[in-house]
Specification:
The chain is of the alpha/beta class. It is 33% helix and 28% strand. Among the domains are: 59 residues, 2,3-Dihydroxybiphenyl 1,2-Dioxygenase, domain 1; 39 residues, no CATH class. It is elongated, with a radius of gyration of 18 Å.
């Protein structure tokens, strides 16, 4: 186990969440699970999503996720943004804004094209501001629109 590992406290959806996450992202696996009884529901698990190790627990309704914690997905291009976005929407996720989407288990994800990060790292503040302004109008991020804003600035 890593020295520091994110620990996610679910209500009672841990099993469904890890099934979705490990099916959605490459380099994912379920490492260990503990069940309530031989055939009971999963109570805790260690799992890997996109190479990141997580611990999860079904802790009941006392704990809630918020957008104060989100998971950032580095997408190599628009095709990958679209692929992840569509998988989340198909699973019942709720799109928000600026590339953020909250999955049906309450965790918020940022689905971000790598090109956006490159554009906002530019030394020209007018170009960065134009890209940020364009991004603020979006739900799912669109690389072509972001690049157009950059080029027009």
């Amino acid at each position: 186990m890593n020295k520091v590992t994110p620990f996610l406290m679910f209500d009672d959806q841990l099993e469904a969440a890890i099934a979705f996450y490990t099916a959605t992202f490459p380099d994912s696996e379920i490492r260990t699970v503990a069940r309530a009884g031989k055939d009971g529901p999963i109570t805790s698990a260690e799992f890997v999503v996109g190479g990141q190790v997580f611990m999860g627990y079904n802790g009941g309704s006392y704990f809630k996720f918020s957008e104060g914690f989100s998971l950032f997905v580095d997408c190599k291009d628009q095709r990958e943004v679209d692929e992840y976005w569509d998988k989340f929407v198909s699973a019942g996720a709720t799109p928000s804004q600026c590339g953020w989407i909250t999955d049906p288990f309450g965790i918020t994800w940022q689905i971000v094209p790598r090109r956006f990060m490159e554009l906002i790292a530019d030394e020209n503040p007018k170009k960065v501001q134009a890209v940020m302004k364009a991004m603020m109008t979006m739900v799912k991020l669109d690389v072509a629109v972001l690049e157009h804003a950059y080029d027009a600035a």
